[in-house]
């Protein structure tokens, strides 16, 4: 299973919200503003914001002056936080089925699953080390 584009879009959305919070003096950023700036369909932005909000990364406000803000400083938001908010399930799905039943095949499946799990753990450890501040400083 490949991850969706939601992860990269969620990172970009958070960075844009931070930029607009700086520009607007911490006013809420509208969903339409985010959709227009990033050329992402509004329903997709809403879905991603729901996930970010549920994870406590954003705060929303309804109404004419409503929109979204980051719920904490970008120095405290890691790529892993964003990843876990929008992606659910394992990186790799094992769906290997053989016609032959043999303990060696079961061992092979277990071995492959172990390597895949190790790779996913390493990826998550790497994401945990990077904050949005690290990315913003590179811009």
Automatic annotation (TrEMBL):
Gene Ontology molecular function: any one: DNA-binding transcription factor activity
Pfam families tied to this protein: Rrf2
Span of the signal peptide: none
Record InterPro entries: TR_Rrf2-type_CS, Tscrpt_reg_Rrf2, WH-like_DNA-bd_sf, WH_DNA-bd_sf
PROSITE patterns linked: HTH_RRF2_1 (PS01332), HTH_RRF2_2 (PS51197)
Gene Ontology cellular-component annotations: cytosol
Coiled coil region boundaries: none
Superkingdom classification of source: Bacteria
The protein's name in its UniProt record: Rrf2 family transcriptional regulator
Organism: Anaerocolumna chitinilytica
């Amino acid at each position: 299973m490949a991850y969706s584009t939601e992860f990269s879009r969620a990172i970009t959305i958070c960075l844009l919200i931070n930029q607009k919070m700086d520009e607007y003096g911490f006013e809420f950023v509208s969903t339409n503003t985010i959709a227009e700036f990033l050329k992402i369909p509004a329903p997709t932005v809403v879905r991603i914001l729901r996930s970010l909000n549920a994870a406590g990364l954003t705060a929303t406000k309804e109404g004419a002056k409503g929109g979204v803000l980051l719920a904490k400083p970008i120095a405290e938001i890691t790529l892993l936080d964003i990843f876990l908010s929008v992606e659910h399930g394992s990186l790799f799905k094992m769906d290997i089925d053989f016609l032959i039943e043999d303990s060696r095949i079961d061992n092979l499946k277990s071995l492959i699953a172990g390597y895949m799990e190790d790779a996913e753990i390493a990826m998550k450890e790497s994401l945990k080390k990077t904050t949005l501040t690290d990315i913003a400083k590179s811009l």
